Structures are given as C-alpha cells and as structure tokens.
Amino acid sequence: MTMTQESAETIGLQALAWIVGNEELLPVFLGASGASQDDLRQQAGNTEFLGSVLDFFLMDDAWVTQFCDAINLPYDTVMKARMSLPGGEVINWT
C-alpha cells in the first residue's frame, strides 16, 4: 500500500514535533543533521527536510517504535512515509 505525499509530509511533521519534544533525542538529531533549532522551524515545510527527519528515525528501530507508539501508528508507517517523499524511492538496480 502506498502513501500520498501529503500523508507522508504529515507523518514527517509529526516526527519532527516528536523529536523537538524529546529532550534526549533532540540534541542527537541536531548533531547528526547539522541543523539548528531555527532550521527546524524554517525547514518544517520542506519535503526534503522532512525526508531527512524520517531517515534519522529509520536509523534506530527503538526510535521508530517509541514514535509510533506515542502517536498510535503501525510500525511500518515511517518507512512508507519515507518512501513517499522525494529521495525515498526504492531503487531497482537490475
């Protein structure tokens, strides 16, 4: 099942809000992404940035689980959302 880009953007925004509200994970995200807190506000509507937020989540199953549990989503939603945003397409090399 595919997800619309609009739905994927919503998941990305929810993920960003969840990171901002997580005192332990926010500094990890800022350090890993090189973004500042001002960048988070300015880039919240940028689909590529939201894709990078979801990429960050996908680095750790525990983050995916915690986020999905917090907002009552199936665990595969983050991957589906990422695949629906620019840069998240599955590449077939054959």
Explain this structure to me?
The longest helix has 16 residues, at 5-20. Helix 1 (5-20) crosses helix 4 (47-57). It contains 6 helices and no strands. The mean pLDDT is 90. The protein has helices at residues 5-20, 25-33, 37-43, 47-57, 61-71, 77-83. Helix content is 65%, strand content 0%.
Main traits of this protein?
single chain, 94 residues, mainly alpha, 6 helices, 65% helix, 0% strand
Spell out the blueprint of helices and strands.
Layout: H1 5-20, H2 25-33, H3 37-43, H4 47-57, H5 61-71, H6 77-83
Helix pairs in contact: 1-4, 1-6, 4-6
Short structural description:
This protein is an all-alpha fold and 94 residues long. 65% of the residues lie in helices and 0% in strands. It has six helices and no strands.
Count of β-strands = 0
Task: Report the total helices.
Answer: 6
Major sheet description = none
* Residue runs with pLDDT of under 50 for 5 or more positions: none
